[in-house]
Amino acid sequence: MLRRWLAGAIAFAIALGAIATFSLMHPAPAWAEDYNEQDLTGVDFSGQDLTSASFNRATLRDSDMSHANLAGVSLFGAILERTNLEGADLRFSTLDKARFLQTNLKNALLEGAYAFNAKFRGANIEGADFTDAFLREDDQAQLCAIATGTNPVTGRDTRDTLYCDEL
């Protein structure tokens, strides 16, 4: 009887060890982070994959999101004042009513982004790619007035992606 119990206990311990080892080698996928309406002033998100996160109406003043993957992320109504988004991937993201005040968007990818009613006052857009971004015409004209550079990833001129010559 004791021998059978001991054999079962050993088998259980081995199984538990195998599960623990497998879990360490294959971590569970990250769940979507909900940062909606949070004050994230000064937070460092640089280089992170945030594709499943949501930042609706979040305050991201002075935060670092440089080189972060934000593709498809919602930043609806977010305050991105003095936020570093250099080289960030914002393709197909929702930027409606976001405020990019004095924000660094150098070399950012905004292809297909929905940025209607977004404000870009004082933003650095050198090398940013706005291909097929949905912008209000007056915002587009404001951005064309300061558009310079070529995006290092896509090779597209910022002015061309904003269709500045067609205004």
Give keywords.
167 residues, mainly alpha, disordered N terminus
Instruction: Indicate the proportion of strand residues.
Output: under 5%
What coarse outline follows from CA principal-axis ratios?
globular
Largest β sheet strand count, sense and barrel closure: none
Question: If helices are DSSP runs of H or I spanning 4 or more residues, what is the number of helices?
Answer: 3
Alpha-carbon Rg, integer? 23 Å
Order of helices and strands: HHH
| Residue-averaged pLDDT | 87
Q: Helicity range of the residues?
A: 10-25%
The helix/strand class is: mainly alpha
Overall number of strands: 0
Unreliable segments (pLDDT under 50, ≥5 consecutive)?
1-9, 11-30
How many angstroms does the end-to-end distance come to? 88 Å
What is the structure about, briefly put?
The chain is mostly helical and 167 residues long. Helices cover 22% and strands 0% of the residues.
Q: Could you walk me through the main structural features you see in this protein, from its secondary elements to its overall organization?
A:
This protein is mainly alpha-helical. It is built from 3 helices and no strands. The chain starts with a helix and ends in a 6-residue tail after the last helix.
Secondary-structure blueprint:
Blueprint: H1 2-25, H2 137-144, H3 158-161
